[in-house]
Amino acid sequence: MPIKYSTEAILKRIDHALHEDIANLYKAPLINWSGCSSSGINYSEIIAERLISDGIVGRILAIPEIERQNYKVDTHDGKLAKKTMRKEEIFAKELFDYCSSGDKQLNAIGKIIDYQVPLKASLKDKGIGKIDLIAYCKKPIDIVYLLELKYKDNKETLLRCVLEISTYFRLLHKTKFLASYPELKHLRSDNIRTGILVFNGSAQHKEIEEMTSGKRPQMEKLFKTLTIDIFLIKTEYIVEQVQ
């Protein structure tokens, strides 16, 4: 039987993680813990409440941008030129390839215009990940979505997903990013939004259902505070927004 930590133990561990670089908080092991404390409270709920009530979200919002000159990777053509075992990367390329064929789109998020978009400006920016997907939706208004994708069998927590894409959004140099894509040059930074894209029936979807049914109020507050949209893959090319 797995160990059930107390609320006090969880708070002590999150306080320790918060002494490190806030841009690496999403990587802290306990952010990805599933299950409940000894008092029956979900670990993510305890952590989310700590982040909201003690103003930690403000530190996340204040993460400085990294000034990368160009975000568009010219070699991204949707084809699997390099072998990879990462299912998210393979599926991201499949979505890009689908949207590159004719005028196809993924209804709720629009057209995928890039995938695996780097954030670091130089080799010294170690440990900085890539944005899984960039989607451009023109209707009803122009929105560019930065999307964190989780494949069907991915077990990462919803909390990890939220903190990861929020961190990436802060690290992104918005002006340079928009200027990197011809179709986005006319837009402004307030046209950029963040979201998570998960599969119907996945571990993350089950957490989302708990959240939308009122069982995860702290996570719901965190989503609203960080303004994260939720998208659900019903089938491989049918995407719905979760309200």
Summarize the structure in short.
This protein is of the alpha/beta class and 243 residues long. Helices cover 34% and strands 18% of the residues. β2 (130-137) and β3 (143-149) form a beta hairpin.
What is the CA-based Rg, rounded?
Answer: 18 Å
Strand content bin: 15-25%
Return residue spans where pLDDT drops below 50 for at least 5 consecutive residues.
none
Give the H and E element order. HHHHEEEHHEHHEE
The helical percent reads 25-40%
Question: Number of DSSP helices?
Answer: 8
* Largest β sheet strand count, sense and barrel closure: 6 strands, mixed
Shape, please?
globular
Mean pLDDT: 92
State the total count of DSSP E strands.
6
Describe this structure in words.
This protein has a 6-stranded mixed beta sheet with strand order 1-2-3-4-5-6. Strand 2 (130-137) and strand 3 form a beta hairpin. It is globular, with a radius of gyration of 18 Å. The protein starts with 6 loop residues before the first helix and ends with a strand. The chain has 243 residues and is α/β, with parallel strands linked by helices. Helix 1 packs across helix 2 and helix 2 crosses helix 8. The protein has 8 helices and 6 strands, in the order H-H-H-H-E-E-E-H-H-E-H-H-E-E. It has helices spanning 7-18, 43-53, 56-61, 87-100, 158-171, 174-179, 203-212, 217-225; strands at 111-118, 130-137, 143-149, 192-199, 228-235, 238-242.
Q: Any key phrases for this structure?
A:
alpha/beta; 8 helices; six-stranded mixed β-sheet; 243 residues; 6 strands
